[in-house]
Amino acid sequence: MSLRYNWSVRTRMTLLSSVVIGLFCLVFCVFVLMGLREHAMRDRADAILLADLRVVRLVARDELRPAIHDATIAVIQVVNSKGRIVAANDGALGKPRIAYFAPTGEGMRGDRVSCSVPGVPHKCMITVAVRVSISRGEWIVYGADQVVPWYVNRSLLAKLLAASALLVATAAVGAYRTVGRVLTPVENVVSELAEITATDLGRRVPVSEHNDELRGLAETVNQTLDRLEAAVEQQRRFASDASHDLRSPITAMRLQVEEAQLHPEETDWPKTASALGISLDRLEAIVTDLLALARLDSGTKCAREPVDLGELVASELRPRTDRVPITTDLQPGVVINADSLQLIRLLTNLVDNAVRHATSKVTVSVKREGDQALLEVSDDGPGIPPDQWEVVFKRFARLDSARNKDTGGTGLGLPIAREIAEQHGGTLTIESSEQGARFVLRAPLHDSA
Fold first, then answer.
1. Which residues contact 233 (CB under 8 A, 6 or more apart)?
2. What share of the chain in percent tops pLDDT 70?
3. pTM of the prediction?
4. Confidence of residue 24 (pLDDT cuts 50, 70, 90)
5. Sign of the CA dihedral with 79 first, then 81, 82, and 86 last
6. pLDDT over 70 (residue 398)
7. DSSP H/E element including 326
8. From the CA atom positions of the chain, what is the Rg in Å?
9. Which one of 18, 92, 187, 310 counts the least CB within 10 Å of its CB?
10. Neighbours of 433 (CB within 10 A)
11. What gap in Å lies between CA 90 and CA 174, rounded to an integer?
12. Minimal CA–CA distance to 425: which of 445, 405, 398?
């Protein structure tokens, strides 16, 4: 398909250049033929005049005979003052008078082109009339010959056509080769892209040595492939981590059920049901977080409205009963444009994470800082090393201390919280604190937005 497309482009460009050069040659030939024909017509009229003047000299010397032996032009006639033909050359003997006009005014010469000359059917003639005054009155000598054709002569026309055909052929060949050289890098890019598959995303298209548009195209394609490879790799890691985290509660439930089936009399069924419930809760949490990430990744626009951040935090934290107390410091009037449900999800994920790792307390504060709203969630737990501040926001990423301590997290809460923050035009980061971890959400205020 790509070769056919490139061939089509090459053919269209070749035809376009050929048509343009052909039109240029046509216009040039028309102008050349018009100029040469005009010059040839003047020469033809001058030749007729010379033949007329030779006859005028014979009339003036009274040496005119009825038969004029002059074959330089087609027709010569001498008309006396009574309008009778008194002499003619061989081409006009026995033919009617070819013209009836006379030089006007005091002039001795008159020219006229006519395509209805008596005795010369189906031909256009240029006629030159010369008036001569003698003792017997005013006589008129008519000389006529065929007009010069539009092509002047066949030899000239053949040369012009041959030169035009050669020029068009040269332009077509040059355009074909030039477009072919231009499209070669494009063909290389297309062929390389056609061979790249999902299992071989490390390959890249060749980049032109010249700093031109084709180089920009190849670099853009390679940048797109880089992003595609990174996205595919992220999806692979995500699928691997998701399958691992989903397998863990399923495996635990299977072991518990199989053990209960092997020893039904010795099984503490209420305890087994409680353990299965815990595994189901963990499985449900993972699936819920996966669905939330899928919705966030789809980029679906959510309805936003002004939300008082302090009031929302207070209403969500008021009914909670956690193992550690949660203290708040909420500044009133901090309003942002947000989706309430997504903002509650962000707050819940941050507070749940803080409660899991806190030693004795969790602090939540809301305040205004310039044109931004700040939501801080901090705990007095072991904290997070600075080199791990970005790691915790990766999907299914949990620190070694968190993995060694079964806290029930899915590894998706913090990535979901950051995705929500970024969709609202804000940021979610970890900042230094005297003890524990401090998560800070920054979002534009409603009036600044």
1. none
2. 87
3. 0.49
4. very high
5. negative
6. no
7. strand 326-330
8. 51
9. 187
10. 17
11. 57
12. 445
